Amino acid sequence: MTDYTTQQSGASKSNPDRFTRWLQSKILTSIGSEKAQKKLWANSEKKRLKDNRGHVVYYFHQSQDGYSDLAVQTLKPLLERYDIELIMHLVTAECGYNAPEPDLLEKYSYTDASLIAPCFGLQSPQSMSDEAVMAIQDSYGSAAQGSLSERQDVGNQLRARLGHYSGAMFYYEGEWYWGIDRLYHLENRLRLFGADKYPEQGFLYPRPEIIQDQAAKGPSLTLEFYASLRSPYTALAYDQTVKFARKTGVNLIIKPVLPMVMRGVPATRQKGMYIFKDAAREARAQDIPYGKFYDPIGEPVKKGYSLYHWAKTHDKGEQFLSAFLNAAFVEGINTNTNNGLKTVCKNVGLDWSDAISHLDEIEWTEVLESNRLDMYEFGLWGVPSYRLLDEAGNEVIKAWGQDRLWLIAKFISKIGYL
């Protein structure tokens, strides 16, 4: 486990000055907007037609990656369904700030991919030999030659030039799609621009539905939910998760953690841009309110957690986190001001004259650090993350990501609690 709490690199980015915070918020709001996406689609389609090009999709495959071993199984079905040219490139895993826990990620990718594979009609991932990977690449339109490392060098350079860092990625005309989880976005775009051979049929890889129609029965279940006040994906998942817990009857325990940037792990520009674009795209697809962003990194997050700690004593901690995330990611409220925090408190019925005396309390710091260590203990490190426990406190399943609540729901149903 990497202890980034002692690292100082990038610490200045964890609490930007007033102008930088404002400018960064404006930029991230703009790049994730539906207007920006539609403009990208229109311009790229115009250029594609002008150049007399077909629909060319690049796929970047990473060895020793469970998500890539799932994604590669979709290539043939995609080619059969869509009028596309599919070119496969080989890449290596990135480390550093783009992937701060590479060893944990490799292990977890196989665990997670094995759980979701059947839901998409795919085989559980199995690590392939170098020869097998190169043979697959040769069959998908690539002109790559040489050894595995030589091919990976070419793939890494192209991936970086096009603006990404991860494996299991699909790229089509200026937009990225991560693995099996984002193929429905790619399919939707290909359909809109006339590349679907069978448009009357549903998507090959639709986003799974969240099962939550009945109250939980049998032994009591507990759902631990690890969240952060500066996480776009937490902003998408938070209210959904609370609603899910209420509807299914599981006991929800919210366990907030500090954002990675405030733990000394600054996000690269490349990673930050992708996350905000992807989160906005996911929100639109699920009809979740989202979009106007005012960055709460640094002092606003600290004060937010101070007020959360206090709000819990009034049985309003859950509502406070929701209101804070809504302010930062939906309403564009500047939580770096007392007026912004006052609005958050007012929205959940908390008295600001009382709240203001709790802004600088630090009791929450030990709790959040304990939550972070808990995550690492069971093999996760990012948010939002889930951990489902049975009546005896034994782990039933763990999952990382706002796009895994459906998996939690499926497990509850599968073991007979729904």
| Largest sheet properties | 4 strands, mixed
The fourth-level CATH homologous superfamily of the largest domain is Glutaredoxin
The general outline is: globular
**What is the string of helix and strand elements?**
HHEHHEHHHEEHEHEHHHHHHEEH
Distance between the termini: 36 Å
Task: Specify Rg, calculated over alpha carbons.
Answer: 22 Å
Annotation, overall tally of beta strands? 8
Low-confidence stretches: 1-12
- State the CATH topology of the largest domain: Glutaredoxin
Which structural class do you get from the secondary structure elements?
A: alpha/beta
Task: Quickly give the CATH architecture of the largest domain.
Answer: 3-Layer(aba) Sandwich
What features would you describe in this structure?
The protein is of the alpha/beta class and 418 residues long. It folds into two domains: 31-192, Glutaredoxin; 222-414, Glutaredoxin, CATH 3.40.30.10. It is built from 16 helices and eight strands. The strands form two sheets. A four-stranded mixed sheet has the order 2-1-3-4. A four-stranded mixed sheet has the order 6-5-7-8. The longest helix is centred in the middle third of the chain and has 18 residues, at 269-286. The two termini are 36 Å apart.
Present the secondary structure layout.
Layout: H1 18-31, H2 34-50, E1 55-62, H3 66-71, H4 75-81, E2 84-91, H5 102-116, H6 130-138, H7 148-162, E3 169-172, E4 175-178, H8 183-192, E5 222-227, H9 232-248, E6 251-256, H10 269-286, H11 299-312, H12 317-329, H13 338-347, H14 352-355, H15 364-377, E7 385-389, E8 395-400, H16 405-414
